[in-house]
Amino acid sequence: MRTVIHGGEILTLDAASPMAEAMVIDGDTILATGDLSSMLTVAGKGAGRLDLRGSTAMPGIIDTHPHFIHFAAVLGMCVDILDAKNHDDIAQRIRERARTVAAGEWIITTPVGEPHYFTRRSWRDLAEGCLPNRTLLDAIAPNHPVMIAAWGPRIPNVCAMNTVAMRRLGITASLPSRVSDVWIEKEPDGEPSGIFRGSVTSYYNPDPFWLSLTVNIPMPTADDWNRGARLGQLIANSRGVTAAYEGHVMAPEHIDAYRLMREAGESTLRVMSSLEAAQYGFDYGLGLSEEDCRSNFALALRLRSVQDDLFRINGLTLSRGGPCWPGFLRADKTIRDPYGRATRGHTFVPQNIEREAIEFCLKNDLRLNMVQGAYQDHREFLESLQPFLSSYDIPSKGWIMQHNILISPETIRRYAELGFHLSTSMSFTWGKGDLFAERIGRDCLSDLIPLARMMDSGANVTLGSDWGPARPFEHIAFAETHEFAGSGHRNVQPGMAVSRLQALKAWTSSGATLMNWSGIGALRAGYKADIAVVDRNPLTCDNDALPKIRVLKTMLNGREVYDTGDLSLVAKVDLPEERRSPQVDTFARAAGPAAWKHICGPACSHSARASAGSMSSQEVQ
Prior knowledge:
The chain is α/β, with parallel strands linked by helices. The chain contains 18 helices and 26 strands. The model is unreliable at 588-621 (pLDDT under 50). Pfam families: Amidohydro_3.
């Protein structure tokens, strides 16, 4: 069926015709864009209509570093207390879970606040100003081990457990108040209170004592990853995202979860994945060996599949270091770890494995995706690459450099010459800007996510959400302001800020180029009908309004995969409830409840239709 989309602005991101009055789609394809009269003629009699009612249609967002499956899987196995207001609120949610799981099974909750930096809201904002200790947790669930988790990337952090959990882990009064970099809060009688501080995060945690405990705490299972792939895609759709490059921390079970969704015909997102050669995010690389890495080289080659319309696997990912917060960032000079100690960071994978990865990818025409944090990563990679430059046409390979948190002008120019795609996230400026200034020194800020410098080099530059905030439009605002979450400092130095159009392209057409996926990233004739409908034009609205943009509808291949009910598409097939509710994006709650309030449409079957009710994340699952 042909459908005419009209009644608002159509932002095509097609250089030949950037704006249109109307657009015609036929099935999964865009037929044409132009003035309404012409498009009605193209559509012909009997075509359906989608009246935008003043909203804006734009290409679906392409997130090139989202971790959709990882965050959603962890969320799915936890009791969600991200938006809890007080201890009673937390207690009610834990009790609900305790009624559904057998005695003795773990109950793990999310932290309180806004993932994953927890800067704008955290446990400090509970009415009581603190997490509940073991006394309250014991009363809530006396027959289950309970843990209120701390998520990365913040260290020091805080978490809480009840008595059953502490006994299960061997935490007793005999332990001192500090073990390694974990502080155990004690009650007057010397018993642990259930509150733990310091290096207590669930991932990217180097503390040997905490690691010895967490091997006994449940991790996501294959079923959790499968549910995470499903929930992660729904979260993506609620943000207007129609395609994602999942190239970091992707283990075989994560790739398999996306594959199973595709085989079941349940994909609502185009995904391209790349297998990670060395996994260390959850266990500090315990047991990681060079032979494991080499085995993953071969597995990445066997997994390669680039023909499917919705799910593709192409590449080998390698990351030798990690984030700054726990002290992992590989530095050329002495910096400070979370506790003020001198460090040069931590290297998980030796340089010889990097050289072998380069050679393997060149010999097998496999795409290499490097995750690079700072100067030492870049310098050593270019050293590793040097011996191959005379024998291989590196610029033709289209390799990817992700993160690029601290990167010099000279390195940017060299990557552009070598044909690398540069992918990064404003998350690192927003969430870690103050951290870099404190740990490394303010002189590094001139090289902190220099977006304009990257784009001016001629390299293809893309953006992703990574650690958060959750919503791409807020990241687009940060591309102009380079704001630090803690201090509010705006790091707008030469080579930093980009225009709104440049930022939008980095989230759409440039992402399609990085994924080497033709026919997406713009609204033009012959392209796939991957469309996000938003309540205002992100190209022309004020910067302060960008984070408040509401996604009203998301379409993949011309099929609705998310809908608030605000706009009715003639002859549309009703969506399942889970794809209607804006509350599917749990991570975005902190952006403001009003922005995510569900407005029931004519097809809505909610029992609370008259009062515009919405689903909880538990209902989504």
